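Study this pair:
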Amino acid sequence: MKKLPLFLLMLFSSYCFAQEKTLAERLGYSKTDKLLIIHADDIGMANSENRATIEAIRNGVVNSTSIMMPCAWSTEVGELIKDMPGLDIGVHITLTNEWHTYKYGPIASKSEVPGLVGPDGFMYKDCASVAQNASPEEVEIEMRAQIEAALKIGIRPTHLDSHMGCVFYGRPEYVASYLKLAQEYGIPAMMNQQIVDAIIKPNPSLFNEVDLEKVVLIDHTAIANPQAYDDMGMDAFYSHLLNNLQPGVTVLLNHIAYDDEEMRAITTGFSHWHAAWRQADFDFFTGEKVRQLLKDNKIHLITWKEIGNLVGNELILPQRK
């Protein structure tokens, strides 16, 4: 999720639709406890991203990730995690291809989802172009195809989330399909109150197929932005965030890879979200300082798997025709 104001440097407060208990209480904690998911986006994007993310999970404090199935290195993830059966890994619904020289298209046949294919034959670079060209039906087809592709390489998704936030910055129908598929597969989808207020409440008829009472809303979402990278540096930004973490459930999004030749080539022409940024994320979340900050601030690490228990104990595999 990149360059989008919805998630940048913000902690969004939210509550479940008609729940009297807070999400923390529903998970067995008190309403004053600080619960955190340290989530690495974009696994599957590159070999560098895959290796660094898994290293940060094995030997750092990262405890969640989500896969970009349209990318060239997504199938490698299935091999790399064979000995990690408890891994918290979601499907990072990917509708865009923002890179200048690294290209990929939709998982579904281009003839089925022509609105997701730009003039160059690959996905569009930005969410606005997706919203302008891709019908809700096409987007739902592609979302389902990405979930099914993950299943085929041995991944049992623990949740859904959205690359660049394009599900939320597209058409309201995209969100309806996103929630419908999460419900169908028996897993949570990342949502917060701001999305509910901006998209669901003004368009209630679009969500008739979704049991909104079972939609789990995250209390807070946090991510670094370019100003934090340039002015504070990642260490200072994350340290400040953890020292000031609010009670409730926070998803802290990061992007982890090595600053190597592959990642520098992929991110050519980008002044942010590049190889050095991702290396800085890796360095912080595999260092000793972050462990001490978590301890000092009495932060409890949780995963999407625990949240998934609130909507269904395990992935539901739809009946194949």
